[in-house]
Every structure is written in C-alpha cells, then in structure tokens.
Write a structure and sequence with these properties.
35% of the residues lie in helices and 17% in strands. It is α/β, with parallel strands linked by helices. The chain folds into 2 domains: 237 residues, Response regulator (Rossmann fold); 145 residues, Rossmann fold.
Length: 406
C-alpha cells in the first residue's frame, strides 16, 4: 500500500502550498468523510472497448484499496466515469463539458485518436488532463496534458534495439492510418535516422484503414519483399485484422505491435497467432522477473500482488491508469483536497525518482520521448506472447536489447 498512498517525499516535488489541506482529515483507516470526486473519460464502447473496460476495473480496484486505507486525508476517492465511445467528436464534447466546470484534474481518454483533439482543450490549463494513452504526438513541455506509459518514440527505439540485437536487418511496417499509426510512423521514421540503426533496412512500409476487413494487398507486397520482421502498430480490433492477414498470407516472420493491445480480453478473440510469434513493446510493468532488486522491481511486485489479491490477472489495461491515478493522488495528499489545477500541474512537472509500475518517473526530462510522461526508453521492454501459458514473457533487458536465448 505504500505505493498507493505515499506522498513520495524524495520525489523532488515542490514544497506544500501555503493554504492548509481540506478540513475533516481523519486518522488512517476506512475513509468515511465526504468523497473527493475524480472525473474519468474512457472508451468503454467501440474500437478499444476491451482496453477501456480493463482500465475501469483497475481504477475501481485502486479506489477500493485507497479508501480502505483512509482515502485522501480521510475522504474516500469517488470515480465519475463517462464513456466517449472511442469517438473523437464525443470525447471532445465530454472533455469540453468537464473543462468548463473548472475541475482541477481529469483522467483519460483511452485512445490516441481521442486524446489528440482533447489535448488542445487542456493544453494551457487550468485543468490538468492525464491521458491514459501514449499514442498521440507528445504535448509540449509545460503543457497541462500528461501522457501515460512510455512514448511511441521510446517504444520505437526499444523495438529497433531488440530487432538489431536479434540480428534482423530487413524490416517491414504495416501501420494503421489513424492517430496511433501516424504516431508510430513518426516515431519509427525519427528513430531510423539515428546512427545506431543505419544497418537496418526498411523493405516495405504499408498502411491500412482501421475499418478495413482485409489487408491481403498489403501483405502480398510485404511478403514479396522478404522482411525478417513485421512491425505493426494498430490498437484494438485493427490488430485482429493484421493477425488474420498475416496468417492468411502464410507469413512466417515475427510481428511486433504496440501495447495498447496487451489485454487478455482482446487476446481471447485470437484463435491463431503469427507463425513467427507476436511481440509487444511496453513499459516495465511485466518485467519484474528480469529486473535487478530495487524500487522499480518493488513497485512492480507490489502492483502484481495487489491485482492478485483482487482476483485479477493484470495486463496493460490495469497498468495504464495505475501510475497516473497514483501520481494524482500523491499530488492531492501533498497539497490537500483543495488543490488547484496549477498546483497539481506544478507537482507533476517537478516529480522525479518516482518508482511507478511502468518505470521510474522523472518529469523534468525535456526530451521528445520523455516530456509530459516522465518515462524514457530505459523503461521500455519487449514481451512475447506465450500461446501455451497464455501470458506475456519479457524477452529483453530494459531498453530493448534481447535477453540471451530470446
């Protein structure tokens, strides 16, 4: 529970505000005072519904555990969750309504396609928006928008580090045409210009619409180029289209995708897998077994234990909201329940050495990959889906270099 409710005194956060915390604070124990309402927007229906459903369950587990240990200064945390249907127009409407209420902080949305337009609403404050997706262009440094998990830039570098360490030199891309795919295109294009990846050759770079029912033409072009690995960043139901296309084409090389797909609910729908295996680039949350001892490993093990105690086999849907809500609660415990948006923003902007489930956060990093999310390539790992055991197995070191035998 220390991970859940600590104020992280060594975090590097600013000194407490001059005003006192909200009245009614109680001794540690079950929270019984008036609730603190935290507004959340998730895509509970539509393209990424399986991911959002898992996020919702994890947020409810977090609130339940926090409230059982006194809540926030004796006040229970209450979640007010709305569904944006993974639709950018609906999401903008909901977010504008929340913004107009001058709330200090909002969590969400789920998908990069909805986060991109939402970012423009909150960018200049005073409401903080902590998005639960990495799949949109990084907000400018100092923005009131923060983004969960490792960026696509970090995921791209970790992926290429893994590819290179495996000795694969010929790569093909098949990305979706939505914000997720566009962000992936930009991230990989930038990374491939770096000197350490000059030995990698892109033999095909294809795209497909998220509503497409077939990618036969794209797979035909890709197969003819004989790549050693296929990289396909497409979240939710579009990944099913990719897998079916890969299988139908008899494509043998491995496939690497983004961690928006790293949910058990989604994988239950996949009856077949690519012959070369399916790999995913994600944060540190599932890599405790290959980590050295330290705060990061402890944070991961604490999270896994908390999930298991609630009968949950955790996946990325449980992880994506866990660190954001933990950080927001940490800010509220630091400044008090009357914390304003600018205070929460200032707290997060100065947060460093914060051991989360996705990695150790340092929001003072003003690099393209790390800004407004606090994580960099050093928090990214590669995982392989084990079809027999139905789990993701870490196959790389931090940063993506392949583990021996993987």
């Amino acid at each position: 529970m220390a991970l859940l409710v600590s104020a992280c005194g060594s975090s590097g956060a600013p000194a407490p505000a001059s005003h006192a915390p909200a009245s009614g604070a109680k001794a540690p124990g079950t929270a019984t005072a008036s609730p603190y309402v935290l507004h959340v927007v998730l895509g509970l229906t539509g393209q990424a519904a399986t991911l959002a459903d898992t996020e919702q369950k994890a947020l409810n587990v977090y609130a339940k555990m926090l409230n059982a240990h006194g809540g926030i200064d004796g006040h229970p945390l209450q979640l007010a969750i709305q569904d944006d249907e993974n639709n950018p127009q609906v999401s903008v409407q909901l977010m504008q309504q929340l913004y107009s209420r001058h709330l200090p902080v909002v969590l969400g949305p789920t998908l990069g396609e909805t986060a991109a337009p939402d970012e423009r609403i909150f960018q200049n404050g005073p409401t903080v928006d902590y998005s639960l997706t990495p799949a949109f262009p990084p907000p400018p440094f100092g923005s009131y928008v923060f983004s969960a998990a490792v960026s696509f830039g970090s995921a791209a570098k970790a992926t290429l580090n893994y590819v290179e360490s495996r000795g694969w030199t010929h790569i093909a891309f098949l990305n979706s045409t939505d914000t997720t795919g566009q962000s992936a295109d930009a991230a990989f294009s930038a990374a491939l210009k770096m000197p350490q990846y000059q030995n990698l050759n892109v033999v095909q770079w294809q795209h497909f619409d998220v509503n497409a029912v077939s990618i036969a033409a794209q797979m035909s072009a890709i197969a003819a180029a004989h790549p050693q690995v296929l990289i396909s960043f497409a979240t939710g139901t579009p990944l099913g289209t990719v897998i079916q296309g890969v299988v139908n084409a008899g494509f043998k090389p491995p496939v690497i995708t983004d961690d928006g797909n790293m949910t058990y609910a989604e994988f239950q729908h996949f009856t077949t897998m690519p012959a070369g295996g399916l790999y995913i680039a994600s944060g540190a949350w599932g890599a405790a077994s290959v980590m050295p001892p330290g705060p990061e490993k402890t944070a991961d093990e604490t999270f896994l234990k908390a999930m298991q105690q609630n009968g949950i086999q955790p996946d990325v849907g449980d992880v994506l909201p866990w660190d954001p809500i933990s950080i927001v609660v940490s800010a509220l415990k630091h400044y008090g329940l009357n914390a304003t948006g600018p205070e929460i923003h200032r707290y997060i902007e100065h947060l460093s050495n914060y051991p989360g489930v996705m990695g150790v956060y340092n929001f003072t990093q003003n690099t393209l990959d790390a800004r407004q999310r606090g994580l960099s390539t050093s928090s990214a790992y590669l995982y392989r889906w084990d079809s027999a055991k139905k789990v993701w197995v870490p196959v790389s070191q931090a940063g993506g270099k392949a583990l021996p035998g993987h």
